[in-house]
Specification:
- By secondary structure, this protein is α/β, with parallel strands linked by helices.
- The protein folds into 2 domains: 63-135, Four Helix Bundle (Hemerythrin (Met), subunit A) (Up-down Bundle); 152-340, P-loop containing nucleotide triphosphate hydrolases (Rossmann fold, 3-Layer(aba) Sandwich).
- It is 56% helix and 11% strand.
- The protein contains 14 helices and 8 strands.
- The protein has helices at 5-40, 43-52, 58-61, 63-76, 83-95, 100-117, 122-135, 164-177, 192-205, 218-232, 248-263, 284-295, 314-322, 343-351; strands spanning 152-157, 182-187, 209-210, 236-241, 272-278, 300-304, 326-330, 338-340.
- A hairpin with a 7-residue loop joins strand 7 and strand 8 (338-340).
- Helix 4 packs antiparallel against helix 5 (83-95), helix 5 packs antiparallel against helix 6 and helix 8 (164-177) runs parallel beside helix 9.
- It is elongated and about 110 Å long.
- It binds guanosine-5'-triphosphate (GTP) and magnesium ion (MG).
């Protein structure tokens, strides 16, 4: 059978046109995906979405700590500052997890300063107490230049469940909003679910995740991730680590090794070692900080779950006893609920019912 060449050419042209039409349109979809999805949501849904992602404020997140600390102080100073009130104040500070050492120091300073300045009225005493507590936070607030190195490598450490992986997700969100490129490194190779959790945050933020199989050597996963970030010209590497291994000694050895191996990259990594502490664990957070510092020296703290606790007073103890900056605080579970620590905003939020 012979085929008419004109007909054959006609058919081929038609096929090319159909293919171009179908695939050309398909390739456009990713560009338009976000815009295309939006009009389909109703206005109410869009408003709800905005409300749902409204970030928690220091004031709202610290409601429980505020009622624990400052509501009790409200009536306390009405009788001046005598031995009985000193004891009551001590009990209030300790129950807010300000800690024994810091509480002693605060009481002594309050006594000395109020005598020296002749302050006896309730408002004056309260203002002085607020000032003294705020002074414990002088080393707590610090800003880090994360543009000095490319990549800037942030290592997250801390016991299981404190919020390391969640904080990485929140930080990825934060850095992206600041137009930085981010790469996540799955250094928790102990649990299969840990890699999945990090990948979920990666997908949510649209950032790459470097991971290997469960049981892989954590230090080499993180080393590879940093090499990859270097090659890609990525701004920020956020490295996750395990919170629990077979035992505590193994965990500490692994962290020590991670520090050593990353050092071999010759880029000064890790540039930040953030020890994540759950504010709700109160004084336990202090012993954790001591333990971890033996394996790898943290450069700063992240205090999570301040929203769910009445033990916000731990901030004063941590800051004074470690002299380490509190880099970030977690005020909720959403991607937006991470703040750089702001000492003034923190003190104001704790005392806002009683102070000016
Ligand atoms: N309310 C509140 N919950 C938080 C905050 N940060 C983390 N969480 C929750 O704490 C739980 C544990 O968080 P993860 O990020 O998995 O903790 P992790 O330190 O990575 O734990 P491991 O991987 O087991 O070592 C999760 O349910 C988080 O949603 C916070 O600031 N506020
Ligand atoms: Mg984790």
């Amino acid at each position: 059978m012979t085929v008419d060449p004109v007909l054959l050419i006609g058919v081929l042209v038609l096929v090319v046109l159909v293919v171009w039409f179908v695939f050309g349109r398909k390739n456009k979809v990713p560009d338009d995906a976000t815009q295309a999805a939006k009009p389909s949501a109703s206005v109410t849904e869009q408003v709800r979405a905005t409300e749902a992602s409204e970030p928690a404020s220091f004031f709202s997140a610290l409601a429980r700590s505020r009622s624990q600390l400052s509501t009790s102080l409200k009536t306390l100073f009405s009788g001046g500052f005598d031995e009985e009130i000193r004891e009551d104040l001590e009990a209030i500070l300790l129950s807010s997890d300000v800690g024994v050492d810091t509480t002693d120091w605060v009481l002594e300073t309050l006594e000395a300063r109020s005598k020296q300045d002749g302050i006896t009225d309730a408002d004056g005493l309260l203002r002085l107490l607020k000032e003294i507590l705020a002074s414990t936070l002088s080393a707590a607030e610090v800003r880090v230049d994360d543009s000095a190195n490319k990549p800037h490598v942030v290592l997250m450490i801390g016991v299981n469940g404190v919020g390391k992986t969640t904080t990485i997700g929140k930080l990825a969100h934060r850095y992206q909003a600041a137009n930085k490129t981010v790469l996540l490194a799955a250094g928790d190779t102990f649990r299969a679910a840990a890699v999945e959790q990090l990948k979920t945050w990666g997908d949510r933020n649209g950032v790459p995740v470097i991971a290997q199989e469960t049981g892989a050597d954590s230090a080499s996963v993180l080393f590879d991730a940093c090499e990859s970030a270097k090659a890609r010209g990525t701004d920020i590497v956020l490295a996750d680590t395990a919170g629990r291994l077979q035992n505590k000694a193994n965990l500490m050895n692994e962290l020590e090794k991670i520090g050593r191996v990353l050092g071999k990259l010759g880029i000064g990594a890790p540039h930040e070692v953030l020890l994540v502490l759950d504010a709700g664990t109160g004084q336990n957070a202090i012993s954790q900080a001591r333990e971890f510092a033996k394996a790898i020296q943290p450069t700063g703290l992240v205090l999570t779950k301040l929203d769910g606790t009445a033990k916000g007073g731990i901030v004063f103890a941590l800051s004074r006893e470690f002299g380490l900056p509190i880099r970030y605080v977690g005020l909720g579970e959403k991607a937006e609920d991470l703040r750089e620590f702001d000492a003034t905003a923190f003190v104001d939020a704790i005392f806002s019912e009683t102070a000016e």
